[in-house]
Amino acid sequence: MAPLVIAHRGASGYLPEHTLPAKALAHGQGADYLEQDVVATRDGELLVFHDLYLDALTDVRERFPGRARPDGRHYCIDFDLAEIRTLGVRERRNPDTGAPRFPGRFPVAAGSFGIVTLEEELAFVQGLNRSTGRVAGLYPEIKEPAWHRQHGIDVGTRLIETLARFGYTRASDPVFVQCFDADELQRLHTELRVPLRLVQLVEAGGKTLDEAALSRLAGTVDALGADLRLLLDGDRGQGLAAAARRAGLQVHAWTVRSDQLPTGFTRLGALLDALYRDLRVDGIFTDFPDQVRAYCDRLP
């Protein structure tokens, strides 16, 4: 079976990440799932936004001078939703230098984009599913749940409640809920009894997962969201992918970018072959859903 095509922050290789146009484009390009990173505002609203702070993606410094924390960053949780709505979103930049992260992508100064709430995005995706007749699933990430709780907001519980209001309540529903925090995933599974499929995110340089650890994880989550660098780490990566499958876990790889191929690869096709044919991953996060979709559609 071809791997799932998971649009990483939407079609973020073509339009600013986590904007509704980026999600619409990814949907039209045939993504199976659309990702939503979830953070909270000061008044407890859930945003679809990757960073805890606003500086790399918005004009917050120009609009709200003097509102930064001592580290120079303007955090989402220090602003009410009404203030967030006044911000313009643009392509990701280095917040210190202003240089674009990916110079060849959508121009930093072009377009008019804004931050949306989780509810707005879910309504938008369901609208696209209805109008096109093709269902794209959801792939939300709970961002820094312990940090949010320190600021008085249980972002994980609020995410699950929001999904339920939109009808996502069963394991068979097209939703994966991902998080780096294993304790949060355990809480969702054991305390909140969340029926949706859960994904443990792991990154290169983190704690090594052996057979026993993966077996324990399989009692809580359904899939391993693995850093591309980890999976491509020779025998170690091959072993991790195989052990995860033996434990009954799916393996979803992140993140494939045709304009930033990992070391050792000069063609996107070669990278996708390594992920699909060698590592047998079940899902691929990508900034370029159309390119990965085209690859998957050619598979026998």
Can you offer a commentary on this structure?
The chain is α/β, with parallel strands linked by helices and 300 residues long. The chain has one domain: Phosphatidylinositol (PI) phosphodiesterase (TIM Barrel, Alpha-Beta Barrel). The chain has helices spanning 20-28, 60-63, 81-84, 118-132, 145-150, 155-165, 182-190, 211-217, 228-231, 234-246, 268-278, 289-297; strands at residues 4-7, 33-40, 46-48, 137-142, 176-179, 197-202, 223-227, 250-256, 283-286. The model has no long low-confidence stretch (mean pLDDT 97).
Q: Roughly what is the average pLDDT, rounded to an integer?
A: 97
* Number of domain modules: 1
State the share of residues found in helices, binned by percent.
25-40%
Order of helices and strands: EHEEHHHEHHEHEHEHHEHEH
| CATH homologous superfamily classification | Phosphatidylinositol (PI) phosphodiesterase
Largest sheet: 9 strands, mixed
Total of helices:
12
CATH class group: Alpha Beta
| Shape verdict | globular
Would you count the extended β strands for me? 9
pLDDT under 50 segments (min length 5)?
none
Q: Radius of gyration from the CA trace?
A: 19 Å
What quaternary form is this?
A: single chain
CATH-assigned fold name: TIM Barrel
CATH architecture identity:
Alpha-Beta Barrel
Structural class based on helices, strands and sheet pairing: alpha/beta
Strand content: 15-25%
Distance between the termini: 9 Å
